[in-house]
Amino acid sequence: MKTQLTNFLRYTTVITAFTLTSCDKSDSADDVDPVTNQSRWITVAGALMGTTAGDGNGGTVVYSVSKEDARNPNVSISVYDKGFPVKSTRTARLQSSEDGNTLFNIAYSGDNGGEFARYKVSGAGSFVQEDVTVNISQYATTTPRWSKLMDGDKTGVALNIASIAANNATDKTKPFQYYRGTATVLSLDLQKVLINGYKQYQVPLSAEEELNGHCFFRFDAPLLNKAQNKLILGTWMRKYNPATGLTESTFDRLGTKSVVVDYPSLENPKVITSTVSFGDNSGYRSPNAFVAEDGNIYQATQRDSKGSHILKINTNNEYDNSYIFSLDAALGVKNAYVDSWKYAGDGIAYALYTHDGTEQGYIARLDLNAKTATKVNIEYDADLNFGQYQGILVSGDEVFVAVTPVGKDGNIYIFNKKTGAVTKGAKLVNKAGNHYIGIF
Question: Which top-level group of life is the source organism from (predicted)?
């Protein structure tokens, strides 16, 4: 690493460049980072272990470098020694502004769970919390799922489903009809730092599906469509045994479902169903659906009985069941599972995945138009686990991913979306039980 003085001068130069240089805008999809100039911060996030190696339950720390340093394999980044602890008892749910200058966070669980905070990124471990905050826990609990909409850093949407119960839970003389929870969809103004509004409702399935005990267990990974008049909510399904009231771990899964609500009113929830896939599409801790240049939406699945798929939702906000993209078939594996992925533009995406029931992570380059997938050639390790991964950064033609096995050092890798070229960047210094979970 260079001396502190050299780093200070570099960061000062970067800040000056932000001030004097206008940003070139990409003409690709709304979901792609539009900043293509070289002067932006690259923020790396690491998760601390709680009680078990790799559980990420000990909190989150962040550290930022210039793009030049992120590309440089001779630079070492030690987020756990020099990073900034972001507010969160467990793993923070992080998002960044399009230009990389601001980090957004909603604390997850604990005394400050549900508290939104905004940080100014100033290089290295300098993240200054702005004097603005709002807490959404009374509406979306202390453990909300949320994502920043791709609307120019204007809006975030938090989701929650609470109090799942049978319709006759308090009166067994009534015939059983369904299990349902109360969903909350909350819109957060990221600039004014206030709640724009929220809606709460139950979202029913078909009468037959509900009589068999199926219900929505979680909403996550909200996405604003290209027309900006609908939100598509990813779903995670659950099934209860109507006779016993117990959850069933194995069951015949329904077709993949999304919930579409009007935007910005957040009203009129409508369920749409894919006949291509039988998995969930809520993702876990990262965005799980993206708008392409032509306005179509591409969405990954998880817990799919036939392996993860990439699904297509058309501009009418309905599934296009003629689009069939099986990652099992494309990669030549069984039980592919997408942990995290990112659309890079021009039909190209990168996915972090596992297969064959193991936890070892791999990276694939996807061509959504040709419906092909190729495993990326990097250094893999049996302890590489992307299960908690949050942030894949797309900047211009470059895709940045943090690759560290649990408890072992790794690197930032940079992929060129046009050529597929792979660059091994800065070293990521790890500590026992910890792992890096994103680049923003």
Answer: Bacteria
pLDDT, tens digit, 9 for 90 and up, residues 325-340: 999 999 999 999 999 9
Beta-bridged to residue 290, according to DSSP, are 298
Q: How many domains does the chain have?
A: 1
Task: Give CA separation, 259 vs 177, 184, 231, 274, 431, in Å.
Answer: 21, 13, 8, 12, 40
Q: Do residues 42 and 70 lie in contact, with contact meaning Cβ atoms separated by under 8 Å?
A: yes
For residue 382, the enclosing domain spans 4-439
- Phi, psi angle pair for 439, to nearest 5°: -130, 135
Average pLDDT over residues 304-332: 97
Contact 62, 86 (CB under 8 A): yes
Strand segments (E) across 67-213:
76-77, 84-86, 93-96, 102-106, 115-121, 127-135, 145-148, 155-166, 179-189, 194-201
Please state, in angstroms and rounded to a whole number, the distance separating the CA atoms of residues 278 and 261.
22
With a CB cutoff of 8 Å and minimum separation 6, the contacts of 271 are 203, 204, 205, 257, 258, 259, 260
The model's confidence at residue 9, banded by pLDDT at 50, 70 and 90, is very low
Cβ neighbours of 196 (radius 10 Å): 16
CA atoms within 13 A on the CB side of 242: 16
Look up residue 302 and give its two tokens: 């998880």
| 216 contacts 191 by C-beta, under 8 angstroms | no
Token pair for 286: 């990262």
pTM: 0.91
What value, to the nearest 5°, has the Cα angle with vertex 143 and ends 138 and 149? 90
Contact of 299 with 289, CB cutoff 8 Å: yes
Can you list the alpha helix ranges (DSSP code H) found in 163-284? 207-211
